[in-house]
Fold this sequence. Notes:
alpha/beta, 10 helices, 13 strands, 15% strand, globular, disordered N terminus
Amino acid sequence: MRHLNKLAVLLAAGALSPCLTTAPLTDEEALAQLEVSLGQVPLPPWPAGDELGMGNTQGPGTRTRCAAYLLHPRSREYELSYVRSGTMPMNPFSTPVEYEYHPTFGPPFSRHAVNGEVISGEAAGQGTQIDALGHFGVLPEAWNPATGPHPSQNAVYYGGLTQAQVKPTPQSPLLKLGIEKMRPIVTSAVLLDARGYLGGGNRLAGGQGITAADIHGMLQAQGLGWRGLLPGDVLYIYTGWQELWQDPSVTGEYYSKGPGLAPDAAALLAQKAIVAVGLDVPFIDPVNEGQLQGNAPPPPGTPPGLPFFLHHSLLTQSGIHIMENLRLEQLATDRTWLSCTMILPLRELGGSGSAIRPVAYGPPRP
């Protein structure tokens, strides 16, 4: 094993020759590399006043793991975001995005022809997106509208930060936990195929939850039990809900309901210290048909007063970023269970989230 440890050290230092960087890693070599990278990944708890959450895991260790898949000779590039437009499915909780395209123009006495457009609306809440840690806070008790306005002044955020510290006035940007504080994510990613494992090849149903036991089961079924989820990983889960994404959006079914993660999955992801989780769904939380209109309750097992429990738990308690509306079908079709993924949000001052263009690089499996 001595030569494997030396290889892992060289991988971590970026000192491999061209022939080694293009050679597929054996399982032994991959394990040796993981051992070195794990020693370079910080682990929680984080210091008081922290605004990065599990973003603290990102660094040389996660980039080392990422490099093996990025440089693999059979690695393919996967676009995980949708093309954005004014006719794509729109989140009912966010202002729709609208596009106005300027006619071609040019400066006088020049040979230039220039094009431009105006984009308005809540870009961070539509299309493929990531949530800042300040996107959600939590109240000490459920709000009853009959008692008065929403008591936002009592909200508490990740790390115990208060409303006065995070958003002191209605017009204020997020002074803490805004999207500009988020680190770029460059790390290894695990894709789990819930459509195949739970749905037997059919997309999961609206309101269906993916449990912690399901996550363990998928890891074993896909031959990833030797590795599991590692600190600093991104977890992608394919449900098949992507089938309902239409542009132009005609039926409106995509945002009417959706599968998601069951409440007990939140504790597992926090224990594994992953940096982010993303699904091909609108909400991450499972949503029953009629729930958004107040005509149906949340799925069974949802904690009282927290219908979007995964948002609450991952953002306010664990510091794990959430991604929604991902394109994961091609990764699943190619059985690219492990990849290098890169996710960079826009640095909007005090923003609660950002549109993103996540990409993944990895070799398909036979």
